[in-house]
Amino acid sequence: MSILKEALDILNLDLKTFDLKNLTTKKTYLCALNKEIVLFIYTGKSRFILKNALFLENLANNFNQNKKLFFIKSALCSKANQYLSEKGFNIYAIL
User: Out of the domains of life, which is the source (predicted)?
Assistant: First the structure.
């Protein structure tokens, strides 16, 4: 969770953490949101591929926020990047 708090502090966003246990059993995704913004962070070590992007879009459809932010710590497949960009995600890399 420190990665999530770090991202919120850097961006100066007032978001509340959201527990995804009711929506997924995957532990590589973190989430925070408010009335307008939903933020997802992928903490997995493996490459983020199109299959993961489809899952993330499906997960984001559970929320009705206008702005979708996605932070990733691992390598991002170009097809996944293109798909998420088309779906309105703003994608950022975490070091």
Answer: Bacteria
Instruction: Tell me how far apart the alpha carbons of residues 30 and 11 are, in angstroms, rounded to a whole number.
Output: 16
The 10s digit of each residue's pLDDT in 79-90 is: 999 999 999 999
Report yes or no: 31 and 69 within 8 Å, Cβ to Cβ: no
Please tell me the pTM assigned to this model: 0.83
Contacts with 51 (C-beta within 8 Å, 6 or more apart), sequence order: none
Dump pLDDT digits (tens) for 19-51.
Answer: 777 777 777 888 888 888 899 988 888 899 999
Closest CA to 30 of 22, 55, 39: 39
For residues 3-30, b (16+ Cβ closer than 10 Å) or e, as one string? ebeebbeeeeeebeebebeeeeeeeebb
Amino acid, res. 6: E
Kindly tell me the burial class for residue 61, based on how many C-beta atoms sit within 10 Å of its own C-beta (0-12, 13-18, 19 or more). Answer: exposed
